[in-house]
Amino acid sequence: MATTATGTSSYTADHGHAHVDDRSFLRKYIFSTDHKIIGIQFLLMSLTFLLLGGTLAMVMRWQLGFPGKPLPGGTLLPETYTNNGVVLPEFYNAAVTMHGTFMVFFAIMPLLVGVFGNYLIPLKIGAPDMAFPRINMASFWTAVPAGLLMLAGFFVEGGSAAAGWTSYAPLSARSDLTGVHLGQIFWCLSLIILGLSSIMGSFNYITTVINLRAPGMNWFRLPLSIWALFVTACLVLLAIPVLSGAAILLLFDQTIGTHFFDPVAGGQPLLWQHLFWFFGHPEVYILILPGMGMASDIIANGARKPIFGYSSMVLAIIAIGFLGWGVWGHHMFQSGMNPTLGTTFMISTLLIAVPSAIKTFNWLGTIWQGNITFHVPMLHALAFVSMFVIGGLSGVFMAASPFDIYIHDTYFIVAHLHYVLFGGSLFAIFAAVTYWYPKMFGRMMNPFWGKVHFWLTLVFYNCTFFPMHQLGLHGHMRRIYDPTQYAFLREVQPVNVFISISAFCLFATQFIFAANFIVSWFKGEKAPMNPWLDNGLEWTVASPPPHGNFGATVPTVYRGPYEYSSPHSDQDYLPQNLPMPGAASAHPQPAGD
Amino acid sequence: MAHPEQATTSGRPTHAHPNYILIWVFLAVLTAVELSVAFLPWPKTLIILILLGMAFWKAALVGLYYMHLRFEPNRLRILAIAPLPLFAVLVCAVITEWIW
Amino acid sequence: MAHAAAMHEDVMLPPVQRAAGAGVYTEKLGMWIFLGSEVMFFTALIGTYVILRFAHPSSWKPPGQVLNIPVTAVNTFLLICSSVTMVKAFASAQDGLLQQLKLWLVATCVIGATFVGVQVYEYRHLIEKGFVPSEGLYGSTFYTMTGFHGFHVTLGVICMIFVTQKAFRGKYTQSDHRGVEVIGLYWHFVDLVWIILFTIVYLI
Question: What is the pLDDT of residues C108-119, one digit of tens each?
Fold first, then answer.
């Protein structure tokens, strides 16, 4: 059958024989070119930033719930941050900015793209590694200094960036307006460096999916997680360079006296917004698509049914990737932009709800009359669908520019973005981490504590973010330091208190997940090769897989990944690489598209 | 620029090289024409359109013949031009901010 | 696709033991995809220039008044020549003419370095005249666009030197000269961007 490809192609050179592995500790675990190790490196880095971002949110929620009261532990912070323990406005602005920055760029994006892109793509397509393993290693080791530089902002004079995660110019360019100079410069530099890391990753993923699929792994037999990661990588490839360009221009405004965004010398503040959101909107699809793809894999598995409407799921992913380039102006409805241009963006934004809705109905169709196993990943995946729908619905409201006049830059927007990013992406991440943890570490996470974490998170999460819709409709603005300074907000301050307490409980609950993650690594039940009875190629190799993944045999694929409860199988699943009994199906389909 | 198939020892089809020097002459001539047109006393919009047209013509020559897109599989050609519509989207949408 | 009798995979063809992909070998595909990101990077810079110029045309002077068109026109011609030498190098490798490969690669390095040198000379001259990045939108956009292009050319020259060195060590053959083709694609792209930039920065 299939034989090893001998030759000097970069990816086959060292990976033909999985059993010989005499690399040093440094080469194996630190400067590794193995996509699985790099994926785990990204996992550890991103989870750390997720914790940091969450901590900053606690600072924000303390100030919002209990303005003027000393922050617990606040007296330990430098006096540029707190005054007798009370959070200073400058530090609050920094917390708001860095919470968003850490969460978007250093937590969610690397968790979805850096971790699961790296870990899943070669395994699920039947490749021994990525197309360019050394560039993959460079991608991780470029992200690390970017993260450190962003962190360093807290330790320089003036503190970290404080102009919002969207860093609107000219505020972000003028240190006389923010009081922050170095911190803003670090923000720009850090994102430029992170951009290089992301671009390296993205062209690696795209090349790998196009050229390294195993024989028989046609495009329409790819798991939806891979389709989603592929389209996401295309978005990263084409959107991140625009952010890099914008950040460079901002950096020049901050350092060498240019005035790209400063109206003083003919610059255009709207230019920053157009450039940033031209990147920023594809960015939010980068933050949701991989979650949608992985949730599809997990839901089909949990329901023991093929995914409903696989082709339309693929087309919906592609449509979202495509249409996502034409909606960026909906972030700018109140910016003073040309109103007619605004109308065109309203239309395109309403249109893009359609593919997401198609996906939602397909998820429902998948679980309909399924033989559902409510394992922990399935619980998170189902929460993902429901919470994402809520976030998507508020999005439809916001897409209408007349409505947006009323709720722009209020907590209605904060509610929406957290419903899609936490309710959507983060639940999908919890699902995916729990699902692929056995493959990564060879051990199962504890299911009881997984369920406790899930239910507590679901309850506290909704208590935290749902009331924000109400606050926003009432007129509570974003990024405000002290809402009680306005009489009309004093009357809803109890809602803020309720949200803050829920948020503290939500944050505390995440330590259950963290403990489960850490303890299971050493003490978890040993994982079999295929604990979830899944059809994907990664479940046909050991947990964890050896270096080189499939060893000397290139897998051959005969079918798609969703053959659950198939009449052709005596079990309720049918792996992709299992030849059918009987000669006719024992030969792979011609390797065409 | 015909490219008759010739099998080599490795079985890889090759084609006769395009006439790279001829392309170079085209590029040089186009550059010279651009330099002349830029200073003609014609309406500015017309000059801009002609110059942009010539610039893209030169870029296409480099892409098709030096980067061999003329001879690559269609799938690669589509990949290569895929980012170009995005350039159009960004620039055109934003220009409407100031001229509409 | 390589036929069954081939003992080794032909590395300059698409991978054999894989489903049909883009129809080209992986390194070439990777470079084309990477170039897509570079298109978007220059889109941001060129788009910025277009927008600012539409919004505030009075910041710009007519062509030729500030920038030295004759010198830059010659420099443009030089860069185009370096594309010719590059593609001739690749053609030599395809034909197995390994001595010619080395010579054409050296020529490309020299011309590329000359281009950068002339740009640096031009910058110094302009700065002496008072035309600096902080001198209005004209200066800001000029230096940003041409500066980042020059940065990309410089990186290209450095990589070209590596490739030339490898050629001198005999690492490229008729059956495996992927590195030559891949650096060539990058080099032509850099030339292509300059063709656009020269027109819109200097002549409009």
Answer: 999 999 999 999
